[in-house]
Design a protein that fits this description.
This protein is mainly alpha-helical. It has a domain at 6-60. The chain is 63% helix and 0% strand. It is built from 4 helices and no strands. The longest helix has 27 residues, at 34-60. The model has no long low-confidence stretch (mean pLDDT 75).
């Protein structure tokens, strides 16, 4: 068995699941038979559940996100920097909401 990364495994499984969903959709479009529609709907539901599990496994295995593109001197970066410097600094709250619920520092709810 060859070893693959979680990204390639996830992409390969999701491509197979999308192909199965497309085939089920074609069955739905081609037929009006309730039994065929039910079978296609069940197949799509199972594919969706499997896709959900694949995404969870990929997330647990530490799937890397694509690196952000380096755009030196882009207009968006300049606009965001201008907005960030023009906004007044907000004062942090002096008391957390949890402490207010507890009635201050008394430790009661």
């Amino acid at each position: 068995m060859t070893q693959t990364t979680s990204e390639t495994w996830c992409a390969r499984i999701q491509a197979k699941l999308m192909a199965a969903i497309d085939a089920a959709w074609a069955m739905i479009e081609a037929s009006d038979d309730p039994a065929v529609l039910r079978k296609a709907r069940d197949k799509v539901k199972a594919c969706g559940e499997m896709a959900s599990n694949v995404r969870k496994i990929a997330a647990m295995s530490g799937q890397r996100r694509p690196a952000p593109r380096a755009a030196a001197g882009s207009a968006l970066d300049a606009a965001l920097a201008a907005v960030a410097t023009s906004m007044p600094a907000s004062n942090p709250p002096t008391e957390r909401r949890l402490d207010r619920l507890k009635g201050g520092g008394r430790g009661r709810l």
